[in-house]
Design a protein that fits this description.
CATH topology: TIM Barrel
Bound molecules: pyridoxal-5'-phosphate
Cofactor: pyridoxal 5'-phosphate
Family: Belongs to the pyridoxal phosphate-binding protein YggS/PROSC family.
Strand order of the largest sheet: 7-6-5-4-3-2-1-8
Oligomer: single chain
Largest sheet: 8 strands, parallel
Low-confidence stretches: none
Keywords: Pyridoxal phosphate
Pfam families: Ala_racemase_N
InterPro entries: Ala_racemase_N, PLP-binding_barrel, PyrdxlP_homeostasis
CATH architecture: Alpha-Beta Barrel
Distance between the termini: 6 Å
Shape: globular
Number of domains: 1
Number of helices: 8
Mean pLDDT: 96
Number of strands: 8
CATH class: Alpha Beta
Length: 210
């Protein structure tokens, strides 16, 4: 596919799910693609947020194009916090210390990213916050002064559609119960299910560059 094809399909998926047109934002996952390719294949189709999952790659690209909206979707080790200065939204907060470290660094930046909390998806040994811990973690993350805009989840790998849809639907319910409006879920292989379940941000990479 390509960016215009994915955008067109996204609008069709919104209609099929009875969602308002434009209610789902495409986040272009640009990890592994250099700026020349991003400028040729993504940027002509509108001002999309661009998402990276490696600290140094993000730093270099965002330094070259500070005019673009950058998101960070990778797992967040302590040594990567320093690269987040240009980031508008961090998708995968899993522990309170990550938010505390970002808040502390942001004092020196003069700006701070907003956050999403990553929810555990039921897989063994995978990333994310267990559902039962979400209210406590949300309160502690908010105590840093940073803004939590919603939840993020990754579908379990190689799971049947019904199970993926269940994970997305459960996450949407948790966000609703917590009063959070943004839902980052769905990738190239499963974004139609995520749109059906109420995603507001889909993180699509491979399909944009094929
Ligand atoms: C790479 C990545 C994506 C995009 O996956 P595709 O299969 O390339 O669409 C989405 N979310 C996260 C967290 C990723 O690391």
């Amino acid at each position: 596919m390509s960016v215009p094809a994915v955008l067109e399909d996204l609008r069709a998926q919104e209609r099929a799910a009875g969602r308002a047109p434009g209610s789902v934002q495409l986040v272009a996952v640009t990890k592994g693609h250099d700026l020349a390719e991003i400028e040729a294949k993504v940027l002509p189709y509108g001002p999309l947020p661009l998402a990276e999952n490696r600290g140094q790659e993000l730093r270099d690209k965002a330094a070259a194009r500070p005019d673009l909206e950058w998101h960070f979707i990778g797992p967040l080790q302590r040594n990567k916090i320093k690269y987040l200065k240009p980031v508008r939204l961090v998708h995968a907060i899993e522990e309170v210390w990550q938010a505390e470290a970002i808040a502390q660094a942001a004092h020196g930046w003069g700006q701070a990213p907003d956050l999403l909390l990553q929810v555990h998806n039921g897989e063994v040994q995978k990333h994310g916050i267990a559902g039962a811990d979400l209210p406590r973690v949300l309160a502690a993350v908010r105590a840093t002064g940073l803004t939590v805009r919603g939840l993020m989840v990754m579908a379990p790998q190689d799971a049947p559609d019904a199970q993926v849809l269940q994970v997305f639907t459960d996450t949407a319910r948790r966000a609703h119960d917590l009063g959070l409006s943004e839902l980052s879920m769905g990738m190239s292989g499963d974004y139609p299910l995520a749109v059906q379940a109420g995603a507001t941000l889909v993180r699509v990479g491979r399909s944009l560059f094929q």
